Amino acid sequence: MIVKSAELETVCGITSKLPDNDLPEIAFAGKSNVGKSSLINGLLNRKSLARTSAQPGKTQTINFYNVNKNLYFVDLPGYGYAKVSVEIRAKWGKMIERYLHGSPQLKKVFLLIDIRHVPSENDCMMYDWIVDNGYEPVIICTKLDKIKRSQVQKNLKLIREKLDLVPGTTMIPFSAQTKQGRDEIWNLIEETLAQ
Ligand code: GDP
């Protein structure tokens, strides 16, 4: 897809009403610091439209990016940041669930997992929420450039096993640095829009 325009259109806080969009939505979920902003910027060819920061956990909102006036990228709040209170973490969870549960335009969910690490309990919970809401998430394994090529298959297998992925689930290794995986992700988005 050629990205002609991309802008942050709506920012929803914990208690805000979700927008009544009439364009298809593609959502991105993952724990803080997994590389979600970098992925969104990489897909949109923007340097800093989505925030990338050294302060994980800052995004407590659901952000809707209008892409080409044709679809929305929905940036779900990063979870699992150790320094926030249990109460705030629970609120984020509710917010994410509310979105997953009540979004008729949501066509595809990407769940981001750092390719270097075995998924956390929060990752497993997020995966289960997505599946329980009727979506089959695509797993994007981020920071691909940070491991040796010879490690890739082994790590993908560990992630698959820990999340207990539904057989046939697509996993896409991605690097924001080399952009490896970018075309594959866009192909999937385009296929989804065509359905
Ligand atoms: P977010 O909290 O999930 O939005 O994560 P960010 O996109 O802000 O990324 C967190 C940190 O990881 C930043 O320092 C990024 O530069 C770095 N990062 C993200 N993706 C990659 C990647 O593919 N390769 C490398 N080497 N670093 C990455």
UniProtKB/TrEMBL annotation:
Residues 22-195 form the EngB-type G domain. It comes from the Bacteria. InterPro entries: G_ENGB_dom, GTP-bd, GTP-bd_ribosome_bio_YsxC, P-loop_NTPase. Signal peptide: none annotated. Keywords: Cell cycle, Cell division, GTP-binding, Magnesium, Metal-binding, Nucleotide-binding, Septation. Necessary for normal cell division and for the maintenance of normal septation. PANTHER family: ENGB-TYPE G DOMAIN-CONTAINING PROTEIN, MSS1/TRME-RELATED GTP-BINDING PROTEIN. HAMAP family: GTPase_EngB. This is Probable GTP-binding protein EngB. It comes from Coprococcus aceti.
